[in-house]
Amino acid sequence: MQIEPTPIIQASGLKLRIGSTQLLDDAGLAISAGERLAIVGPNGAGKTTLIRCLLGLTHPDSGSILLNGYPLAQLKPAELARQISYVPQQLAERISFTAMEFISMSRYAYGGGGGFKQVDSEGLKATQQAIELTGIEHLSHQALSTMSGGERQKVSIAAALAQQAPTLILDEPSAHLDPKQRDIIHCLLVKIAREQNITLIVITHDLNWASSDFDRVIGMKDGQTLIDAQADKFMQQETLMEIFDADWLLHPHPESGRPMVLPRQSLKA
Amino acid sequence: MTDRAKSTLLITMFGLTVLTALVMPWLGHHLPSWDVIFRPRADDIDAIIFWQIRVPRVLLSLLAGAGLSLGGVVFQALFRNPLATPFTLGVASGASLGVTIAMVTGIHFSLLGLSGTSLAAFSGAILSIALVYGIARASGKLSPTTMLLGGVAISFFFSSLILLLQYLGDAGSSFRILHWLMGDISRASMDSVLQLAPFIISGILITSLLHRELNLLSITDDIAASRGVHVDRTRLLLFFAVSLMVAGIITVCGPIGFVGIMAPHICRILIGANHRFLIPASLLFGATFLTLCDTLARSITSSAEVPVGIITAILGGPFFLWLLLSKNRSLP
Prior knowledge:
The complex is a heterodimer. Chain A has helices at 47-54, 77-81, 99-104, 121-134, 149-162, 179-196, 207-213, 231-234, 237-244; strands spanning 9-18, 21-31, 36-40, 62-67, 70-71, 84-87, 167-171, 199-203, 216-221, 224-230, 249-252, 259-262. Chain A is α/β, with parallel strands linked by helices. Chain A has two domains: 1-83 and 167-180 and 197-269, P-loop containing nucleotide triphosphate hydrolases (Rossmann fold, 3-Layer(aba) Sandwich), CATH 3.40.50.300; 93-164, no CATH class. In chain A, strands 6-7-8-3-9-10 form a six-stranded mixed beta sheet, sandwiched between helices. In chain A, strands 2-1-4-5 form a four-stranded antiparallel beta sheet, covered by helices on one side. A two-stranded antiparallel ribbon of chain A has the order 11-12. In chain A, strand 4 and strand 5 (70-71) form a beta hairpin. Chain B has a single domain, classed as ABC transporter involved in vitamin B12 uptake, BtuC (Orthogonal Bundle), CATH 1.10.3470.10. A two-stranded antiparallel sheet of chain B has the order 1-2. In chain B, helix 3 (45-78) packs parallel to helix 8 (190-209) and helix 4 (91-105) crosses helix 5 (116-138). Chains A and B meet through helix 2 and strand 6 of A and helix 9 and helix 10 of B.
C-alpha cells in the first residue's frame, strides 16, 4: 500500500468575489514536498488570484489554506517568506538596484541586517550561492535597469532562491522572453528545483513545458480548479477541450515521448 | 560604484555639511571679527546678530533642509513616483490653509509658547494627513495610488480655498499670506530650532531603521510582501512619521519648495537608489543646500531679504538639469 505524503500546501474551497466578478469559485490544490506543479488555463481563469492567495498577497472570502498544517492567515509575513518565495511575471525596467543589492534584499525575512547593515554574513553566503546557481556572476554589479528581459528574469529567480524557502511560486516566468531565453529559463528552473529539492508551483501558458517537466498539471477555468492530473494524463484531447475550448493535435515528443500540442493545419484553410 | 566609494562620498558630504555649518554664520552683509563674537561686550550688535539671528538660522535651515529632503526620499519610494514630494499628500496646502484662515480672520492667540500662526499651520497639516489617510482607508486598502490621488485632490481643494480667502481678504493680509507661502527662515530663533529638532530627529531615526523596508517598497508591494515586509503597517508608520516631520517644518519655515523633490533625485544620481546610502546622502545634501540658499537669500540684496524658496528653485533647477543631462550622456 502506498502512503500518501502529507501535503506542504493544502488549499481548498477558495472563493473570492470582487465587485460582480467571481475571481475564485471553489478553487484548491494540494502539493507535496519536492513536487513540480504547473497551473494552466485561459486568461482570466483565476490562476494568478489563486497563487496570490497562496502567497498571502490576496485574502480569499472563504476557504482554507494550510501551510505545513498551519493556517496561512495566522503566519507573520516574515514567517511566510521563509516558507514560500515568489517570482513575478517580470520586474519593472525602472529598478536601478544592482543585481547584488536586489538579491540580498530577499534576506529581509531572516533579519540579521539590522541597523545600517544590508545583510549579515549568512545572508551574503545565500546571495552568493543564488548567484552561482543561476550563473549570473557577470551581472552581479550591473543595475537591473540596464539588463535584458532574460537577464532580469534570472536575477529575479536568483533573488527568490536567496530567500531559501522550500517552495517557489512563479507567475508565467517566461511570458515576455524570446524562444531561446524561454528555454534557458525553463531548463534553469527545473534543474535547480531538482538539485535543491524545491517544491515548484508555476503558472504557464506553455503546455509543452508543462507536459515535459512537471509531475502534475492543474487546469483552471472560471475560477475553478477543474482538472488535477498527472502531466501525461492531463495532455489529452478531451481535457484540453474542456479547459481551453480548443481542438489541438497531440503528438509524442520525438525524444522524450511526452505528449506535445500542435495547432491544426486545417484551421487555417 | 562600490560600497567603499559610497562611504567615502558620504564622509565627504558630511565634511561639507560641517564646513557649511561653521562658515555660514560668519557670512552676510558684514563680516564680524573673531574677538567681537567670542569675547563680546554686552551691547555688541555684531555678537547679537551672530548668536541670536545667524546661528539659529543656520541651525534651522540645516534641520529643515535635511527633513524636506528626507521627506522626498521616503515619499518617492513609498509611492514609487518620482514626482512625489513631502507636499504631495496635501501637508503643505493643509498648513497653508490653516495660516490663511488665521491671517484673514486676524485671530491672535498663543499656546505653550507657540504663536497662533504656528498652531494654525500645524492643525491644518494634521487635518490634511488625517483626510488622506481616511480617504485611503475608506477605499478599502491603503494603495499608494489612492493615497497619492487623494493627496493631490485635497491639495487642489485647499489651494482653491486659500485663493478664495485671499480674494475676499484685504490687501495687507493677502500680502502676508503670499509671503508666508514662499517659505522663509528669517523668523528663526533658538526656540524654533528646539521646537523643530524632535520632529526631525524622530523622522530620521524611524526612516533610517526602515531602510531595508524602503528598498523593497520602492520595487512593488508584492515583492515587499513576498520578502516578508508588513506592507500596510510599514507604509502607515512611514507616512505618519514623515508627514508629522514635514508638518513641523512647514509650521516653522513655511512651505519651502524644491528641496524635497530635487535633493533626493540629485542624491540618487550621485550615490544610487539603495536607501542605506540614499537616506544619509539626502539628509546631508538637503541640509547643506538649504543652508547655502538661505545664506544667499539674506546676503543677495542689502535692502530686503529674498524668500529662500525662490533661491532654492533658481539655483537648484539648472544644477539638477545639468546633472541629469551629463549623467545621461555618460551612459553607454
